[in-house]
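$ fold --in a.seq
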Amino acid sequence: MSEPPFLEIRGLQAWYGESHVLHGVDIAMREGETITLLGRNGAGKTTTLRAIMGILRKREGTITLRGQDLIGLPLHRVAQAGLGYVPEERGIFASLTVEENLMLPPRVAPDGMTVEDIYRLFPNLHERRSSQGTKLSGGEQQMLAMARILRTGARILLLDEPTEGLAPVIIQRIGDVLTTLKQRGMTILLVEQNFRFARKVADRFYLMEDGRIVNSFAARDLDSHMGQLQDVLGV
């Protein structure tokens, strides 16, 4: 990378109890870039997101955002620095309405999306704004989980398996939203099993096996790496 990375992870190691899961992960992201982590289940992709965010505290290495070291910061300070995490389980509060869920996280920067911006981006949420979380479809829950982070003003979106279990029409909608966010300058680190979806939105790919990055390449070089992807992912 010619310019200094916007977000840089170096030598990241992480543990669940005594189980050593990440073994020196290196990732460097430019501002406004979308990177996809590819790998089989258990490769360490979700653990990488959790370790970057600080949810997983037993970790070593360096994580810097605009040169600021994040590794020693508590979780709320990492969020205030501009990182937002959308977990695979989405974390929607079932007893709250869509709009109450949307307004729950505090803003971390003044330039987050307004509620009106979010409803234009996710018309389904506007239609369901008074519905409780228990009444939302899986796709609507995914939209809401993403929307909550966008309202906070976070500049880096850590997105874990956003298409898991969703209908093709909703997957297409999520893809359209990510394209719009890229156009607005959002930096996105995406974990995704759906390779066909990932190849439409990513600028670069990192391939993981057994808690390590085994390769990285630009989207334009994807075809030349299909043999390795076939071996690792079975795509």
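$ fold --in b.seq
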Amino acid sequence: MPRNKNYDENIVLKKALNVFWEYGYKATSTRLLEKKMGINQFSIYSSFNSKKELFLRAIKKYREYVEQNVYKDLLKPDSGITDLQAFLLSATMANTAKFKNRGCMIVNTAAEIGNSDSEIAREIELYYNFIRGMMKNILHNAIAKNEVSADIDVDKLANYFLGVMQGISVASKTMNIKQINDFVSVALSIII
């Protein structure tokens, strides 16, 4: 007879997400997951099959979180350069306050794992494709609003701003707000 779960899988997944975000994939042991998730190893493997599967689900949960919370203003159908500028300038403050200098979980994972694991690399690529798509929409809107020149290379600039966002994630861990604001100002000066 199957055992009933005495926990909400969604709640323990959010807890796992925070553990992986804080410690990274490799430094997160099953013992640490047990402690932080509040469930035993058997329950972890029963619900998620493996540490890697739990991590992959945590990455997907992170992507859902940022779509609904972090990027919601940039995902509005009419978001343009003004919205991007406001977001980038506020990203440092939000990162410091909300994420306790943890940066972006995906950027951290890309730095830690890179392409050494194809399944994790695929999740990283899906996240980056989401950011590129968001940036393309913003740039197309900016052209329509006459915020930028109509002859910009949208694909190239979407890749550039993906890199800017990765850079801000890493820089916000150690640089002060003035340094980050300088970084953002110079990055935006390319198109404004």
